[in-house]
Structure formats: structure tokens, C-alpha cells
Design brief:
Distance between the termini: 62 Å
Structural class: mainly alpha
Largest sheet: none
Helix content: 55-70%
Radius of gyration: 31 Å
Number of helices: 4
Number of strands: 0
Length: 128
């Protein structure tokens, strides 16, 4: 086992001592819990956290690129559906049916979307 000599602030040392005292108060024996064992445990935990953060940084996932790709695809879908809706509203089979007027359908869709978004993301009175 390697021996490390490090210097920590008095606050850190006090917190480690508090952990040691708490464990002893919970019934741990003096030989089982020491300043050194607790400090070693904390260093190991810190290394695990550090390594996990480094793995996340090294991952190929790019949040900005993902957001851009999702936005592009949502916009493409929106424009395609708008064009299809406009084309369908001009169909001779639907002529004279007020239910399928393009402007009315657009307004209805916008209202339905607004209601769904409000359910998922309610506006607080502060934002109003």
C-alpha cells in the first residue's frame, strides 16, 4: 500500500474527523475506523467521480449538435406537413366542407398544440 502525504485545510480535516467520530459513535471499533481509512475512502470516491466526469467529456455525444439535428428535423417535418395539409385542403373531394378549410385547420392545430404544451410546461403567473 502506498503512503501519501498531503496537506488539507483545517476544515477538511475537521470534516474527516467528524466522519470518524460518527462511525465510532455508531459502534465501529477504533481499529476499523481511522482518519487514514476515511481519508483513503474519500480519495477513492473522488477518483471515481473524476474518472466518470472525464469519460463523459471524452464521449462522442455532442449536445449542441444533437439539439441542432433535432431542431432541423422538427422544422423539416413541420414544413412538409404544412404543405401536405395545404395540398389536401385543395382536394375536390373536400370542397365545400368547412371542416377542412386550410386556415381553420391551422388555427385548430395551433390551439391544440398550445393546450398540450401548457399541460406539459405550465406557465407560472410570474412569467405571464
Amino acid at each position: 500500500m502506498a503512503k501519501l502525504q498531503v496537506y488539507a485545510s483545517d476544515e477538511v480535516a475537521a470534516k474527516i474527523n467528524a466522519i470518524v467520530e460518527k462511525r465510532r459513535a455508531e459502534g465501529a471499533k477504533e481499529r476499523d475506523v481511522s482518519f487514514s481509512s476515511v481519508a483513503t475512502m474519500l480519495v477513492e470516491l473522488g477518483l471515481r467521480v473524476y474518472e466518470a466526469q472525464m469519460e463523459r467529456k471524452e464521449s462522442g455525444f455532442n449536445q449542441a449538435l444533437y439539439n441542432k439535428t433535432i431542431l432541423e428535423n422538427v422544422l423539416k417535418t413541420q414544413f412538409i406537413v404544412s404543405k401536405l395539409l395545404a395540398m389536401e385542403s385543395l382536394s375536390p373531394h373536400l370542397e365545400g366542407n368547412d371542416k377542412f378549410q386550410f386556415q381553420d385547420m391551422v388555427m385548430c392545430i395551433r390551439q391544440d398544440v398550445k393546450e398540450m404544451v401548457e399541460i406539459l410546461f405550465p406557465e407560472s403567473e410570474e412569467n405571464s
